Amino acid sequence: MPALPYVANAVISGTLTGIVYGLMALGLSAIFGVVRQVNFAHGELMTLAMYGAVGAFQGLALDPFLTMIAAAMVFGVFGYVLQRGFLNRFIHRPEHLRMLLMIALAIIIGNGLLLAFGPDARSVQTSYQLDSFELGPLLVDKVRVYAAIAAVVATALLAAFFRLTLTGKAIRACADNPIGARVAGLPVAHLYAVTFGLGAASVAVAGCAMVQLIDVTPGLGPGYTLLAFVIVIVGGLGSMVGALLGGLAIGVSEALAGLLITPSAKSMVSFGLLVVLLLVRPQGLMGPGRR
Amino acid sequence: MTSDRPAGAGDRRRLALITVVTVALVTLPLVGSSYLVSVATLALYLAYVGQAWNVMMGFAGQLSLGHSLYVGLGAYVAAGIFVHFGVGPWAGLWLAVAICSAVGAFIGLLAFRLRISGVQLSLLTVAFAELARIGFDHLDWFGGPGGLFLRVGDRNHIDLLGFRGPPAMYYYAMLALAAGALGVCALLLRRRPGYYWRAIREDEVAAQALGIDTFRWKMLAVVLSSAMTAIAGVFFAFYNNSLFPEQIFGFGRSIEIILGPVIGGLGTLFGPIVGAVALVLLGDGTTEILAKAGVDLPGARQVVHGLVLLLVTIYLPNGLWPPLARALGFQPRRL
Known about the structure:
- The structure holds two protein chains of two kinds.
- Chain A has one domain (about 5-220).
- Helix content of chain A is about 75%, strand content about 5%.
- In chain A, a hairpin with a 2-residue loop joins strand 1 (about 130-135) and strand 2 (about 140).
- Chain A starts with a helix and ends in an 11-residue tail after the last helix.
- The longest helix of chain A is centred in the first third of the chain and has 32 residues, at about 5-35.
- Chain A is an all-alpha fold.
- In chain A, strands 1-2 form a two-stranded antiparallel ribbon.
- By secondary structure, chain B is an all-alpha fold.
- Chain B has a single domain, classed as ABC transporter involved in vitamin B12 uptake, BtuC (Orthogonal Bundle).
- Chain B has helices spanning about 10-30, 35-60, 70-85, 90-115, 120-135, 165-190, 190-200, 205-210, 215-240, 245-250, 250-265, 270-290, 300-315, 320-330, and strands at about 150, 240-245.
- The longest helix of chain B has 27 residues, at about 215-240.
């Protein structure tokens, strides 16, 4: 058993990473909860945003935390257009076909990145990347703290949008009862597109926050798609609070597994957790009653 | 190969087509280059695993996105006892099939008893494949992340017992497997399991109301599908001679397995074959053309696969086979 400060360090860094995971999963959860679209290209969208952040840093010397704002807008518009102009046409197709559609997009994005940038890992080196805050015996990476702060801000904005604006309220109505929403005259196609845009923007922000925590390779996508699913299933498909709690749970358990068992075993813990939860409580921790 | 219907109009044309295809397939290694043989072996391999996966999704409607689990397990089991104990592939085959059927039955039991379906079922299958990938990274007996390597045999001498020989031998083995799988599936579809599976696929509640023991028939689909896939794994081990957990259990591998049947036509008998051929022709065709042009672009083949999948899902949701079958004079049926 490692000494207590190590465990505390792991819990803190796991919590901070978990907040970013939570934001990433929130995007997936919103898209699933409202549009009923299983976004198998979620991790690929994040990888795309990470390449954007690397490109902006190398080409324009833009800090990833500034790129984040632009990325949120670009991905928001992209998500809106993708849903409005393309995915909305397939709303009434069987579930597996809609999943396959997203898998096709994922394959194209992931391998398109491989075509464009090659297989080498890329990263961003800012001046403060290796700095850390010292709190007594604890050392906390600055980038991790900033990433978590950015994720908290983005999450708060998203929550405020869903709670406080009329569009947000309409989207929630759509999620509750799509037919009722249509009957009441809500512009469902538009609301779906807004939701997908917000989901894409969340994952873009998460990607820009993650870019200083991990190296970027074109093959990152599937792993993060699966991770986002794990988190969302752990938290409950469609539940926003659940996605955040699930992110924290996965972040901390990964960090602890990395410390206590071996770093390569950390995703084993999340997939193990997924299997157990699917079997015991398929609606997730915060999900509604059984389906 | 059999035609889909009893004798009737256009029967002569169909018979001619089947004869031509059969003769072409059988004589291919005699006339084709070694490159062509390897590409054809790949196509037959994808057609076979696609057929196996199609039993579960195409026939019974249970979407598995983790079929690389059974390829990998089958390959590692057979390769493991070969490398460590010198047990040949024919004995290893039985062990691989037994273990994969057991694992399939276990996953099916968990999922179907606890009434997990749809997205959750797909994710459960992915999770098990990923667990196996990470697990095998830590199993030193199987070589861990560094890989498990089989002694390469004499390529000029045919050793059927040891499953060692020239590429043409592997080609014929895969041809036999693909033809066998087609035969088994054709037979099953015309018998009780086929009808029950399709009833479950279309509407499980209605099937249950008609008195079909849906649990039992879904279990049969999963176990049969995993057993068939295990055989592909054993083939892969002895054909490829090296196994890496990252490669064989990867999510990309599971997707590769489903591409053929989805593109060719879910739930159809010839869909997995047509889809596999289309994928290999387009994918390797692209790579070839790029290579001729002097560029080597990793990812180009997969982008083509993705585009094909995208276009087929948009414009031909029932796959390439139904329109192709009509054009060839076959009665197209979504079996």
